[in-house]
Amino acid sequence: MRLLAKGSKMYSILFNKCPKCHIGNFWTTNNPLKNMLLNTKYTCQTCENCSLVYELEIGFWYGSMYVSYAISVAVMMLFWTLTSVFFPLINIFSEILIIVIAILLASPLNYHISRLVWINFFIKYTPDDTY
Predict the structure, then answer these.
(1) Domain residue spans in the chain?
(2) What mean pLDDT, rounded, does the chain reach?
């Protein structure tokens, strides 16, 4: 499976790895809910392996809001489709409530993934072991 192999963007995103070396972690832990509930400093500033500074410039993470928006729209469409197919007689207010609850429950994971996707747009994997 080349899509999930080391060196691919999906590997970095799904396994919480540095986009440059794919060895160091991007987040301090893999549990986004635990990180947000404890309100700790859970984002690494640099990679412990290759010393890549994750915030490439001031305001770099504003772009991840666009990725987060796209993920939220996908979650909304998924739950709208599921409620329409499995509960065709449900009223619109109940359907909106289900979608809002789904978005709120998915928000920690959405935040976690959107930053990884955003930085992978700009950083290329370099398989060099001489960091």
Answers:
(1) 2-122
(2) 88
